[in-house]
Amino acid sequence: MEVTMQQRSELISEMAYSEAGFNELMRVLLDGFSKQERSLFLQEYPGEKGNGFRPRRWRGYGCSFQLRIPRTRSGAFQPLILGILSSQESERALLFHELYARGLSCENIAEVCERIYGHHYSKQQVSHLAGACYEEINEWLSRRLSPRYLAVYIDATFCSTRRDGSVWKEAYYTMLGLLPDGSREVLTVVNHPTEGAIAREMELQALKERGVEQIDLIVSDALSGIENAICSTFPTALHQLCVVHLKRQILNTVSAKDKAKMSQELTELFPVEKTNLTPLAAYENLCIFAQRWGRNSPSLARLGRERNAAYFTYLRFPEELRRMIYSTNWVERLNRSYKRTLLMRGAMPSAASVVYLLGAVAKEKSEGTYARRLPYFRGWTIR
Question: Is the distance from CB of 358 to CB of 174 less than 8 angstroms?
Fold first, then answer.
């Protein structure tokens, strides 16, 4: 019996009216397109032969159905629908990665994606798909670096990490580099169970192995032995200890009634603007401060040690640059972004999973906010 055009239209309309019918209609159409595409391929390549079909499931927008993908004996035939499916899978993996890197748990991601794709994903499936970008992040963290950086900022943050059946607070180091054009980029995110100068020396040496030849200034906290680590790896680099860390520590040693007075003295002790003070003269002022306050607080008496002259390296630079180089605040802000990402997760299952998440945040910052060139550094000079 011959079917008229009107009957065909009515049949298609009836099928498209229900969800199951629409899915079946889409399946038939896509299977038909793929089969016709193979026929054209076999006409173009007479030596080729068909080799049946292979199943492939398609999901999206509430639809889910099994397709029959045509094959050839040589395997050279790739139907258009296969490229679309591959692209869809890549986009889905990228979406999972983006949501995971922004702090959503695997369970939250599964709920979001069920609404989008109409299919339930288990936590294990979400974790697997989100982890598809692990290799990309690891390659980015070990990429080749620029030969010169105006400044490198070093700091660590601590994250709860599961190791050998127990949960520990472990150190994760970040190094942020300032390029000659005024842009910034995260150079490395790496885990060492404890914070120490030896670990930092290892990471500074790793920068050299990745192509860094010169660093003008290294900004860090006053971790014991850090100056030796810098001298052994980049002997020509100047060293600036974090002034903000020091101020915070000093204020924590005095009573509440002395904090206002101490805060004022610290502002005068570490001038940023409208001063011709040399690093040596500023260090001498610190020694006098240490002698005076050290009578009541023995810990403050130790501020006169020679290594603390490195708190005033910033005075060798132009006034408009000093606030950006006299502390590790840039890395501390990045650490806060890390914490927001980790906040919903509790203890991470491994150090590698923490590095992956922190690396994803660092990569996004480096390619976004940090890529903007800061004009202040055009006047980079050292006196």
Answer: yes
